[in-house]
C-alpha cells in the first residue's frame, strides 16, 4: 500500500540511521543506551511492535536474582563448576550494570534477600541443597565479592507466615525491583540521548541491500547501516534458524493485605514458581511445568489449571488462614533454548541479535544489550 509520507518525514524518520534496534525490552533499550553512550553522534532508533514495550520486560516478577542452590546444582550436573561460575558472574555483573545504568532509587531496588523454599514433600531435595550451601558459598565468593551468601534460613519460615515449608535457604544478595519503573527509566534515558522509540511498529523482515539494511514495517521501510534484533521470545519470526523456544509465564497479584508478613523474593520447585511481596501485596507466578506444551506459545492468555495451582499455593503455603482477593492477572513470554546463555551474535554483516535471556533478563538484559551494541559498533 502506498504511504503518504512527506519528503521531510522520509528523510528524518526513515533514512540515515546508523543502527536500528528491533524490540524495546530491557535488551533493546540497553543496546540503544550503550550505542549512544559510546558514540553520541550516531543516529539510533528503536522499533517496537507494541503500544508499550510488550514483551517480558514489562510483564515480569521483578526478581533481581542470580541463582538458587537447586538451579545451580542442576546446571552443574549438566555442565561443570567452571560454567556455573561463568553464569553467575554474567548475571551478577549484569545486575551491577543495570543498577549503574538506572540507579537503585529509579529501580526501587531493595536487597531484602531471596529464599528458596522446600515443602514437606521435598525433604530429600531440601537435604541435597542444604548440604551444598558451603560448597556454593566457597565456589561463588570470588565472583560475588562476599562470603557466606547462602545460609539455612528455616528458622525464618514462621516470621514470613509461611506454612508447610520444611526448609528454606536464603541468598542474602538477592533483591527485588519495580519492573515498570525500570522500563520507564530506561525509556527516559534513551529518549534523553536522542533515540526515538517508534511504538506500534512491527518489523516484518530485514533485507540486505548493497551495504545497508532495509527494515520493512507496516508503516514503510527504514534504511540503516546496522540492525540489532532484540525481540527475545519472538526472535524466530525474523530469524527462523535461532534456537529460541517461547515459554509463557502466568502471574497474579493480590489486593493489599494489611498484616502481610512476607518480605523478599521466593523460589519454589526449581524456580517454576516464584513469589514476592510488592509492598503489602503478594505477586505470584509460574506453573509452566504443569503443561509445558500449552505454554510454549507467543499468545497472551491464562489457563484455568495454572491459575488454580497458583491460588492453591497462595492458600496452602503463602497466606494460610488469610482471606485474599486477586487484583490482577496477566501473562508474558520468556525465551528458552538448549543453552542457558543468551544468543549474542552477528547473523550476517550489518545484522546482529541479542535474544534468549532464559527467564533471567533482569540480571542478563543490560549486559546482553551492551555486548551486542559493542559488536554492532564495529560495523558502523
Ligand atoms: C512472567 C514473567 C516473569 C519473569 N520474571 C523475571 C524475574 O523476576 N527476574 C528476571 O530476571 N527475569 C524475569 N523474567 C524474564 C525477563 O523479563 C526477560 O528475560 C527479559 O525481560 C527479556 O528482555 P528482552 O528485552 O530480551 O525481551 P522483551 O522484553 O520480551 O522485549 C522484546 C520486545 O520485542 C518486541 N517485538 C517482538 N517482535 C517484534 C517485531 N517483529 N517488531 C518490533 N518489535 C517486536 C516485543 O513487543 C517486545 O517489547 C520474567 C519473564 C516473564 C514473562
Protein model, in words:
- By secondary structure, the chain is α/β, with parallel strands linked by helices.
- It has two domains: 7-59 and 180-244 and 339-377, FAD/NAD(P)-binding domain (3-Layer(bba) Sandwich), CATH 3.50.50; 112-137 and 147-176 and 245-336, D-Amino Acid Oxidase, Chain A, domain 2 (2-Layer Sandwich), CATH 3.30.9.10.
- It contains eleven helices and 18 strands.
- The strands form three sheets. Strands 1, 2, 8, 9, 10, 11, 17 and 18 form an eight-stranded mixed β-sheet that branches. An eight-stranded mixed β-sheet has the order 5-6-4-13-14-15-12-16, with helices on both faces. A two-stranded antiparallel sheet has the order 3-7.
- Strand 14 and strand 15 (281-286) form a beta hairpin.
- Helix 2 runs parallel beside helix 8 (179-192), helix 4 packs across helix 7 and helix 4 (81-102) crosses helix 11 (361-377).
- The mean pLDDT is 96.
Summarize the structure.
With 380 residues, the chain is α/β, with parallel strands linked by helices.
* Main pleated-sheet profile: 8 strands, mixed
Tertiary shape: globular
Q: Which ions, cofactors or small ligands are bound in this entry?
A: flavin-adenine dinucleotide
CATH topology of the largest domain: FAD/NAD(P)-binding domain
Q: For the CA atoms, what is the radius of gyration?
A: 22 Å
CATH class of the largest domain: Alpha Beta
* CATH architectural name of the largest domain: 3-Layer(bba) Sandwich
Layout of helices and strands, plus pairs?
Layout: H1 7-14, E1 17-22, H2 26-38, E2 44-47, E3 63-64, H3 69-78, H4 81-102, H5 104-107, E4 114-119, H6 123-130, H7 133-144, E5 150-152, E6 165-171, E7 175-176, H8 179-192, E8 196-198, E9 203-209, E10 212-217, E11 220-229, E12 245-254, E13 265-268, E14 273-278, E15 281-286, H9 292-295, H10 304-318, E16 326-336, E17 343-348, E18 351-355, H11 361-377
Parallel strand pairs: 1-2, 1-11, 2-8, 4-13, 11-18
Antiparallel strand pairs: 3-7, 4-6, 5-6, 9-10, 10-11, 12-15, 12-16, 13-14, 14-15, 17-18
The site of flavin-adenine dinucleotide (FAD) has 44 residues, from α2, β12, β16 and α11.
Amino acid at each position: 500500500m502506498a504511504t503518504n509520507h512527506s519528503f521531510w518525514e522520509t528523510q528524518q524518520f526513515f533514512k540515515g540511521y546508523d543502527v536500528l534496534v528491533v524490540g524495546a525490552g530491557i535488551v533493546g533499550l540497553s543496546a540503544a543506551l550503550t550505542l549512544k553512550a559510546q558514540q553520541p553522534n550516531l543516529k539510533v532508533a528503536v522499533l517496537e511492535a507494541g503500544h508499550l514495550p510488550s514483551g517480558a520486560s514489562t510483564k515480569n516478577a521483578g526478581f533481581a536474582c542470580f541463582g538458587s542452590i537447586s538451579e545451580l546444582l542442576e546446571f552443574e550436573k549438566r555442565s561443570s563448576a567452571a560454567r556455573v561460575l561463568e553464569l553467575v558472574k554474567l548475571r551478577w555483573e549484569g545486575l551491577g550494570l543495570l543498577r549503574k545504568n538506572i540507579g537503585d532509587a529509579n529501580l526501587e531496588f531493595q536487597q531484602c534477600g531471596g529464599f528458596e523454599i522446600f515443602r514437606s514433600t521435598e525433604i530429600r531435595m531440601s537435604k541435597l541443597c542444604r548440604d551444598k550451601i558451603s560448597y556454593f558459598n566457597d565456589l561463588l565468593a570470588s565472583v560475588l565479592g562476599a562470603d557466606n551468601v547462602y545460609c539455612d534460613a528455616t528458622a525464618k519460615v514462621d516470621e514470613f507466615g509461611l506454612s508447610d515449608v520444611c526448609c528454606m535457604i536464603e541468598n542474602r544478595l538477592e533483591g527485588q525491583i519495580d519492573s515498570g519503573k525500570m522500563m520507564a527509566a530506561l525509556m527516559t534515558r534513551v529518549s534523553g540521548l536522542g533515540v526515538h522509540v517508534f511504538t506500534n511498529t512491527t518489523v516484518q523482515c530485514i533485507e540486505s541491500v548493497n551495504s545497508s539494511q532495509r527494515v520493512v514495517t507496516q508503516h514503510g521501510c527504514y534504511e540503516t547501516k546496522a540492525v540489532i534484533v532484540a525481540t527475545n521470545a519472538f526472535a524466530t519470526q525474523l530469524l527462523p534458524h535461532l534456537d529460541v523456544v517461547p515459554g509463557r509465564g502466568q502471574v497474579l497479584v493480590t489486593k493489599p493485605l494489611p498484616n502481610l508478613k512476607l518480605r523478599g523474593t521466593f523460589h519454589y520447585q526449581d524456580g517454576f514458581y516464584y513469589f514476592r511481596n510488592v509492598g503489602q501485596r503478594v505477586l505470584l507466578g509460574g506453573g509452566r511445568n504443569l503443561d509445558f506444551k500449552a505454554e510454549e506459545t507467543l499468545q497472551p492468555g491464562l489457563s484455568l489449571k495454572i491459575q488454580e495451582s497458583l491460588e492453591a499455593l497462595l492458600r496452602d503455603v503463602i497466606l494460610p488462614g488469610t482471606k485474599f482477593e486477586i487484583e490482577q492477572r496477566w501473562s508474558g513470554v520468556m525465551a528458552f533454548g538448549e543453552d542457558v546463555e543468551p544468543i549474542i551474535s552477528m547473523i550476517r554483516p550489518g545484522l546482529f541479535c541479542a535474544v534468549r535471556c532464559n527467564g533471567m533478563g533482569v540480571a542478563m538484559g543490560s549486559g546482553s544489550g551492551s555486548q551486542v551494541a559493542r559488536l554492532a559498533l564495529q560495523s558502523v
